[in-house]
Specification:
single chain; 209 residues; Nucleoside Triphosphate Pyrophosphohydrolase; 4 helices; 18% helix; 41% strand
Length: 209
């Protein structure tokens, strides 16, 4: 596998240099990522979508996460990150389809990784049904949605669990319906402040459209 090089930033987002992805996660260097949250409106209800990471992933296997996201390589611009939406969940979007939620600092520290991200975050209002999602199965094993208001309540502690529904792809390649109640512990362990910021900015943006 080709070694990936990322930009190393200071905590204010200033370019410092370049380093391998593994070294960056080992040392906890700040680096850039691209995040795209997908939402939709159906029958007057607003939904937010999550991907279910493949159990084969090295980091955070079989946990729910941002709809589509990935690292920006050293030679990539923010706009290049849009490729993640097509690669991971099969939706074709362009820069004009996305609404910026700004930059958000986000740290995840586990026993094996120090993931200090400065994330360029975007919102995509999808008109598509679940049939349009085509998953990159070595990366993503499912896609689900829940009511946006329920996710907000989960993040601020008003709910202990939420119902998600969508589909998953089994190892055999068979597509199955997925519906379950999940807790906050079943998400990639982003900081609570990250989720709180995203929810607030989506709510503010929705008031303008």
């Amino acid at each position: 596998m080709e070694t990936e090089f990322l930009k190393v930033l200071d905590e204010n987002g200033k370019y410092v240099g370049e380093e391998t992805r593994d070294k960056i996660h080992q040392m906890g260097f700040w680096h850039e990522t691209f995040h795209c949250w997908v939402c939709s409106i159906e029958n007057g209800q607003r939904y937010i979508y999550f991907q279910l990471r493949s159990h084969k992933k090295k980091d955070y296997p079989h946990l729910y996460d941002i709809t589509a996201a990935g690292h920006l390589l050293a030679d990539e611009s923010i706009a290049d990150g849009i490729r993640e939406v097509k690669e991971e969940i099969g939706l074709v979007v362009g820069p004009s389809d996305l609404m910026s939620l700004g930059k958000v600092k986000n740290s995840i520290v586990t026993s094996s990784i120090i993931d200090n991200e400065i994330s360029h975050v975007f919102l995509y209002h999808s008109p598509h049904s679940f049939e349009r999602f085509q998953l990159q199965e070595n990366e993503v094993s499912g896609i689900v949605r829940t009511l946006f208001c329920d996710f907000a309540k989960l993040c601020n502690g008003e709910l202990e669990s939420i119902e998600v529904s969508g589909f998953a792809i089994q190892e055999s390649g068979i597509k199955i319906e997925l519906k379950e109640n999940i807790t906050f512990a079943q998400f990639v362990p982003h900081e609570h402040s990250y989720f709180a910021t995203i929810i607030k900015r989506i709510e503010e943006l929705n008031k303008l459209i």
